[in-house]
Amino acid sequence: MNFPENLKYTKDHEWLRVEGEEAYVGVTDFAQGELGDIVFIDIDSEGETFSQEDVFGSVEAVKTVSDLFMPVSGTILEFNTALEDEPELVNSDPYGDGWMVKIKLSDLAQLEELLDAAAYKELT
């Protein structure tokens, strides 16, 4: 199982890579493994603002559909359009090409509430 040290994690198995006041969001290696083969990503909320833990989309796998929860409050700036044609990127590269949304952070203090790699690893 892969837990990059430079990311923040949630108990809902999302990760956050912070770059200044923006961040990339995706699901963890553990989550994609539990979901199985991902066939569709449903995120149509570009430009919308969400509070921490709001549902901002869903992931459909062969056997199940799972909600995606916003790790911190923010506005969705961009959806990873590569996932429209290749949702399996979430399975093959969850921390790289499989990112889901790019957000503008609205409360940097919320980052302190997220888990580091060691704490997240203890959950899985």
Walk me through the topology.
Layout: E1 8-9, E2 14-19, E3 22-27, H1 29-35, E4 38-42, E5 49-50, E6 55-61, E7 65-69, E8 74-79, H2 82-85, H3 89-92, E9 101-105, H4 117-123
Antiparallel strand pairs: 1-2, 2-3, 3-9, 4-6, 5-8, 6-7, 8-9
Commentary on this structure:
The chain has 124 residues and is an alpha+beta fold. The protein has one domain: OB fold (Dihydrolipoamide Acetyltransferase, E2P) (Beta Barrel), CATH 2.40.50. Helices cover 18% and strands 35% of the residues. A six-stranded antiparallel β-sheet has the order 1-2-3-9-8-5. A three-stranded antiparallel β-sheet has the order 4-6-7. The mean pLDDT is 96.
**Total separate domains:** 1
Mean pLDDT: 96
Q: What oligomeric arrangement do these chains adopt?
A: single chain
The rough form would be described as globular
Tell me the CATH superfamily: RNA polymerase II/Efflux pump adaptor protein, barrel-sandwich hybrid domain
Low-confidence stretches: none
Percent helix among the residues? Answer: 10-25%
| Strand/helix succession | EEEHEEEEEHHEH
CATH architecture annotation name: Beta Barrel
What percent of residues are in strands? 35-45%
| Alpha-beta classification | alpha+beta
